[in-house]
Fold:
Amino acid sequence: MTGYLYSILKPFANFSQVPFIDGQLYFIPLGGSGEIGMNFNVYCCDGQYLIVDVGITFADDSTPPGIDVICADLSALRSVRDQLVGIVITHAHEDHVGALHYLWNQLKAPVYCTPFTASVARRKLGEAGLLDQVPLHEVLPGSLLELGGFQLEWVTLTHSIPEPNALVIRAADRTVFHTGDWKLDPHPIEGEHYDDGRLLSLGESGIEFVVGDSTNATVEGWSGSESECRKALHEVIASQPNRVAVTCFSSNTARLASLGDIAHETGRRITVLGRSLFNYLQTAKATGYLKNFPDLVPTEDLDYLPKSEQLILATGSQGEPRAAMARLAKGEHQDLLLEPDDTVVFSSKVIPGNEKKLYRLYDLLSQKKVRVITEQDAPIHVSGHPCRDELRWMYRALRPKVVIPVHGEERHMASHSQLADEMGLGSARVVNGDVLQLDPTGVNCIARVQTGRLGLSGSSLIPLNDRALSERRALADGGLMTVTVVLDKKARLATEPQVQFVGVPSGDIDPETLNGDLRYAIEEILSEQNSRTLQSDDGLRSALQREIGTLVRQWLGVKPKQLVNIVRL
Ligand SMILES: [Zn+2]
Ligand SMILES: [Zn+2]
Structure:
């Protein structure tokens, strides 16, 4: 293991300040290392920069209210924007392509990806009004491409979405295998199989570094095949007497193909609820997938179909409140009401952090006497990421000198490093912002660059530590109190002070009495101020805030955010 001293390095604000050496290749993650999500990787060689993946991550409990989507902060790249040779997207999951339409204006480099990913990217760019501006180039799986001094080879793997690609990146006599997200699925249902012959021959020709997926590095064994999942789904659906509603990740085309076949085999017809399912079905069909997927039954025709012949596909496998499954569970879906003896199948895993939302949905469904089946009850989901035996298989094939774990939280990356060490390979740890010099005698962290997270608020991307977001959190935690005092030319009260609370419960105290007492207190506070304070807006405001804040805390036991307006006539 190499490269721990770097933790003491002060980050550079710009890539142009980093002491890169000509003839060397560098790897710098700005997102996705130390976390699952928001992948954004930079390779640098001889003053040229290659971007691999532009992903988002989603908000969690620690995110300020009102922020749902988070992107990497690219301010460090600003000074070298003219030196970007291209943006390569490995596959179409949100954590790899989801930020393209938010961040492209900061990058303005051509984009390269395979046709399915391009189709997903086009939809996002179109919605953002950027379609005409972004040079988006389709690359066929298995292709070779030269971008500046970088030679790239697309290598087909398997995952949980069509066209997942690893990249062989060659520059400055170095060879990196950047895995993207992958697993080894011998029967992936949809899309290409992985090419084990190519992987073995790459190993023979000399892969020096692997930058690789750590998501399942803590899990022994194999991730399992979509074809096993399909068998289990068939058994579950075939044994249900009434309507079945299934939710899964909308982008998992193989799972959708399986459900299409199962519907046919069990004498059911499919109805789809939720926009993202429609979008992915459309994208998959337009790019040559889901060829045998059955025609859909419109929701208005469901009444004419016996319940035992209905298979509903619904969005919202993670309990997203606005998605179809949450609305079905609450009985609020405009097109369908679930009934006792119906079955809901969650063909998905519970992403950590979503447990509460999902358990609430299970409870709501159980209250309606709807049967709930999850992956705890039957093997109806398989992961798209490699477990330890798949990692071992890959490293025996590729025989890299050094493995650099990415795409994982610390424990996943540590476990991945440990596996590489056990196999006698070198490993190097990396976190967002590290500048790793890819030297085959040892990977060194030579510097750090500034990184961060930006939250999408309306149409703006703002740092998560921005003052406006701290204020928003304070408002969410404690509510707001506004005080307005109107003073005449002699700084005497011209009218009665006004007090208003937003989101502050008054408890046992009658709100009218509370406001009356506060108005009286404000008059008292004003009468105690000297003339200098009375003439100064800032002085008067801080005196009012201090004294009223103390009173409100004493009376209500809370400390709302205060807004004091001083109006002078
Ligand atoms: Zn991913
Ligand atoms: Zn993925």
